[in-house]
Amino acid sequence: MDMLPELIDEGRRILVFSQFTQMLALIANELDEAGIGWVSLTGDTRDRRVPVEDFQKGRAPVFLISLKAGGVGLNLTAADTVIHYDPWWNPAAENQATDRAHRIGQDKPVFVFKLICAGSIEERILSLQERKAALAASVLSEDASALAKFGEADIAALLAPLPKLKN
């Protein structure tokens, strides 16, 4: 998360989404070490209003959010930057999370970052997301020739050994 201090220096208000609460805890530790304020929302958060209000009122520049706990039903127009720390299989879940910043009342452009590690399963998940998005678009456009199914070959490609990176 080396990019956070620079983004904060630019005055950015940042939502960081992860599907793993343990990853959010690791990020929180890094933010503490860097002296960066943050709030969080996970499935364990008792009162969702408190961190939302703290972020919206500018008490913390970073909001760490569990994808499943905070990906829907929040209005976070104070944010102008969204970071997806790790990809989720379903692009709609990430789009819903991003939409927390794209709400009525948003008066700034919103920048979205997806952190993807080269040569990892994350790249394959991103490819799967792109295929799912193309599939959804083809269904909506009634272009049946573009329809594709997710099958055994797709699963095999996702789980195949990763290529060795050259140093």
UniProtKB/TrEMBL annotation:
GO biological process entries: DNA repair
**Could you tell me which PANTHER family the record lists for this protein?**
DNA REPAIR PROTEIN RAD5, TRANSCRIPTION TERMINATION FACTOR 2-RELATED
Q: Name one Pfam family in it.
A: Helicase_C
The record's annotation in InterPro entries points to: Helicase_C-like (IPR001650), P-loop_NTPase (IPR027417), SNF2/RAD54-like_C (IPR049730), SNF2_RAD54_helicase_TF (IPR050628)
Keywords associated with the record: ATP-binding, Hydrolase, Nucleotide-binding
Source organism: bioreactor metagenome
Say yes or no: keyword Hydrolase present.
yes
Q: What is this protein called?
A: Helicase C-terminal domain-containing protein
Ranges for domain Helicase C-terminal: 3-156
One MF term from GO for this chain?
Answer: hydrolase activity
The GO cellular component terms are: nucleus
Classification via SUPFAM superfamilies:
P-loop containing nucleoside triphosphate hydrolases
Which Gene3D superfamilies does the record cross-reference, listed alphabetically?
A: P-loop containing nucleotide triphosphate hydrolases
Question: What taxonomic ancestry is recorded?
Answer: unclassified sequences, metagenomes, ecological metagenomes
